[in-house]
Amino acid sequence: MAIRIFASTFNILFGTNEKVFESIKRLSEMGASNDLAFLAFQEVRKNPKIKDIKEKLEASLEQKNLSYYMHHADTVNHLGLALASNIKYTTTHNLKLPQLNKLPWRIQSYFLDQMPLCGAIINTYNIEGKVLGVVNMHLDIGGGFKHKLNQVRSVKNYLETLHCDYEIIMGDFNTIGTVKVLFPLIRWQSKKIQQLFGTDYKITNTEKTYTSDIRGVVNPALPLKKLVEFTKKKGFAWEQKLDWIITKNLIIEKSTVRHDLIGSDHYPVCAVLKI
């Protein structure tokens, strides 16, 4: 009998907008209607309006098995990851991704106590005697696509040591490129990611569907906030494909980007999969 899996990835923008928790609750309900549910969240960060972001997140979820990878620093440019599921993981791994080692980032490292955390949570689960690996990762905003691909490669290499029968790889890849203007760039990035993983892997959501629009809720940590607000008034499209779900040895029944679930500068990417 087939096992139905609900998977989603959602950058929640520190929880700065209360509506994001309504969206999380809806995702949790969608997950509960399937046999298995895996919900990946990025930018699970401290917020002056929220005393405990973990407590707030957990209150919105039906899935109570959570893994966290959170930076100890309080500054807004440090990131946090959470991975929720409706079954207990067998093993959990926190992986720090390769950092930029070129100017100006190398100079920056001399002046900051802590550099931004770009990393991944990798959990394994026992599914009827088989190993399912689930990844939640957040790649660098800075640096070119080559650097981001190198970060993805480090995750893939680590996954290979876990010998998973099935894999779900999710997260905010920060693959910069607006859907309307730079679609050929997005298609090229998608092709390179596919080549890196190989033909056993499938990318779930379509290339032409945007997963982020920073005109909606402007990231408070974004250095270009004023530029975004100016171009927003001029009607410039900031619709980008930043978020991905990639699978191995799983049947993709359905995949979508939920533009109706709001509260962040990202939208949840969701997939229903089958074993």
Kindly describe this structure.
38% of the residues are buried. This protein has a 6-stranded mixed β-sheet with strand order 3-4-2-1-14-13, with helices on one face. A 6-stranded mixed β-sheet has the order 5-6-7-8-12-9, covered by helices on one side. Helix 4 packs parallel to helix 5. Strand 1 (4-11), helix 1 and strand 2 form a beta-alpha-beta unit. It has helices at residues 19-32, 53-59, 105-111, 145-160, 183-197, 225-233, and strands spanning 4-11, 36-42, 65-70, 80-85, 91-96, 119-127, 130-138, 166-172, 201-203, 212-213, 239-240, 243-248, 251-257, 269-274. The protein is globular. It is α+β, with helices and mostly antiparallel strands and 275 residues long. The chain has a single domain (4-274), classed as Endonuclease/exonuclease/phosphatase (Deoxyribonuclease I, Chain A). It comes from candidate division WWE3 bacterium. InterPro entries: Endo/exonu/phosph_ase_sf (IPR036691).
Question: What is this structure's SSE topology?
Answer:
Elements: E1 4-11, H1 19-32, E2 36-42, H2 53-59, E3 65-70, E4 80-85, E5 91-96, H3 105-111, E6 119-127, E7 130-138, H4 145-160, E8 166-172, H5 183-197, E9 201-203, E10 212-213, H6 225-233, E11 239-240, E12 243-248, E13 251-257, E14 269-274
Parallel strand pairs: 1-2, 7-8
Antiparallel strand pairs: 1-14, 2-4, 3-4, 5-6, 6-7, 8-12, 9-12, 10-11, 13-14
